[in-house]
Design brief:
This protein has 15 helices and no strands. It is 84% helix and 0% strand. Helix 1 (8-39) runs parallel beside helix 6 (135-163) and helix 3 packs antiparallel against helix 13. It is mostly helical. It is globular and about 50 Å long.
């Protein structure tokens, strides 16, 4: 008998995610162009990205042990409420005052702290809300949600940017985030409390950290996957400022073309997610599949800005399709392997690795964008990710195969 996926809890978390994602897509699109328009600098844009990523290095490290001992729903709901209020306040500020780069750096740091807690809570509670036996379908739905909404919101955001402006978009984002929190408050989960005699202490926090690190030390396959994903995700985040600059400054390109450029990638992701929802890849083929996808993806990135625009669209559609399939396979295998009582700490470690790599690469690639052709910068960054693939995924293939084939 097939396991029912769309339970009450699962429907609520997907509905809340949809509301938050709609606002986040529109807000991120508007802010990316606002920063570049105000500064005319890829390094300035990259610095904003690095600042936003920085809290992910230490906030998950502090919060994860506590999150593994308390109901994760509390962190999810409170994080979305505070996040919504902060974005709405930023929108109101921009309505009455001019843009300040220094002020925006400070606000970005605060927002990043809130989003770091919210993201960790979501990644940790989501596996609990998927019925047993429906994990691949559950992650397929999560994998399709952002692409589908991006197809709708990316072109709409380009229109809204010109019609209503950045402040109104940010206020709307704040409202949607609060609505998401209210929806999440109706989720019912078991209150899995790990109580400590005499209350929680710094000593106990250190013991929890050591327990998580000890688990990762023996899970060499997980570590190999995390190390590669840190590099490739970091490169991807760092490239975003280059893409904005290229579409804003290259003759014949525009913000509208950039939005369409993103849409086709997410069409590919949506199709890839739909296939994963219907077809289950045999365990013995998972490692070979993801390794092949990673290599194709990095080659596509390396040549992306050197080809005519129609071929760019095809490039992104293919990458979206393959990337979605590999991400769902990976997430299903990884999250199924991690014990529930360690999930927040292990996910926090992953977030920290990705953030550290993203911050460093964002600054380095942003600096390259100041002195080199944007297209050459993209090629170099893709080559870095390709080298990481061979070092970590192929080099650690024995242990990584276990993660994919034993889940």
């Amino acid at each position: 008998m097939e396991t029912k996926l769309w339970t009450r809890n699962f429907s609520l978390i997907i509905s809340a995610s949809a509301m938050g994602t709609i606002g986040a897509i529109a807000g991120a699109f508007a802010l990316s162009f606002l920063v570049f328009d105000e500064t005319q600098s890829t390094l300035a844009s990259a610095l904003i990205l690095a600042i936003q990523l920085f809290p992910n290095i230490f906030v998950p490290f502090v919060a994860a042990p506590i999150m593994d001992r308390l109901p994760r729903k509390i962190f999810l709901v409170c994080g979305d409420i505070l996040n919504g209020l902060a974005y709405a306040a930023m929108g109101l500020w921009l309505m009455f005052y001019d843009f300040s780069y220094i002020a925006y750096l400070i606000v970005s740091l605060l927002l990043a702290c809130l989003q770091s807690v919210d993201s960790l809570a979501y990644r940790s509670i989501y596996p609990e809300l998927i019925p047993k036996g429906a994990e691949q379908k559950g992650y397929s739905v999560a994998g399709m949600l952002y692409p589908i909404l991006n197809i709708i919101m990316a072109p709409l955001a380009a229109v809204l940017l010109d019609r209503i402006g950045v402040p109104a978009i940010l206020i709307a984002q704040g409202i949607l985030s609060v609505c998401a929190a209210l929806t999440e408050s109706f989720i019912k989960t078991e209150n899995k409390l790990r109580r400590a005699e005499g209350g929680y202490s710094f000593k106990l926090w250190k013991e929890d950290i050591k327990e998580g690190l000890a688990y990762l030390k023996k899970e060499k396959g997980l570590m190999g996957i995390y190390e590669y994903m840190a590099i490739t995700n970091g490169v991807s985040m760092a490239n975003s400022s280059l893409m904005v600059a290229f579409f804003r400054t290259a003759p014949g390109f525009s913000a509208a073309m950039y939005s369409l450029f993103s849409v086709v990638e997410f069409v590919g992701r949506t199709v890839g997610g739909a296939i994963q929802y219907k077809i289950k890849l045999p365990p013995q083929k998972r490692y070979g599949f993801v390794f092949l996808v990673y290599q194709i993806y990095e080659v596509m990135d390396m040549c992306l800005l050197w080809i005519p625009y129609p071929f760019m669209l095809a490039n992104r559609a293919i990458c979206g399709f393959l990337g979605s399939n590999s991400a769902i396979v990976r997430e299903t295998a990884v999250q199924s392997r991690i014990p529930d009582e360690l999930r927040a700490r292990v996910n926090a470690f992953f977030e920290m690795l990705v953030t550290a790599a993203g911050s460093i690469l964002a600054l380095l690639i942003g600096l390259m964008g100041e002195i080199m052709d944007y297209r050459l910068c993209m090629t170099i960054s893709g080559a870095i990710a390709m080298i990481a693939c061979w070092i970590f995924i192929y080099g650690g293939r024995k242990e990584i195969r276990k993660v994919y084939e034993e889940s």
